[in-house]
Amino acid sequence: MPVNTDASFVDHLSPNMAVQFLDRVAQSSDREAFRFPRGGDWESVTWKQAGDKVARLAAGLLSLGIEPEQRVGIVAGTRYEWIIADLAVMCAAGATTTVYPSTNGEDTAYILSDSESRVVFVEDDEQLAKLTEHKAELPHIAKVVTFDGKADGDWVITLDALAELGDAYLAEHPDIIEQTAKSIAPDALATLIYTSGTTGRPKGVRLRHKSWVYEGAAIEVQHILGEDDLQFLWLPMAHSFGKVLLSAQLACGFATAIDGRVDKIVENLGVVKPTFMGAAPRIFEKAHGRIVTMQQAEGGLKEKLFNQAFEVGLKVDKLVREGKSVPLTLKLQHALFDRLVFSKVRDRFGGRVRFFISGAAALNQEIAEWFHAAGIVILEGYGLTECSAGGFVNHPDDYKFGTVGPALPGSEVKLGEGDEILIRGPHIMDGYHNMPEETAKTLTEDGWLRTGDKGSLDADGFLTITGRIKDLFKTSGGKYIAPSAIEAKFKAVCPYASQFMVFGNEKNYVVALITLDVDAMDGWASENGMAGSSYADIVNSDKVKTMVAGYVDDLNSKLNRWETIKKWVLLDHDLTIESGELTPSMKVKRNVVEDNHKEQLAALYA
Question: Which SS3 state, helix, strand or coil, does residue 396 take?
Answer without folding.
Answer: coil
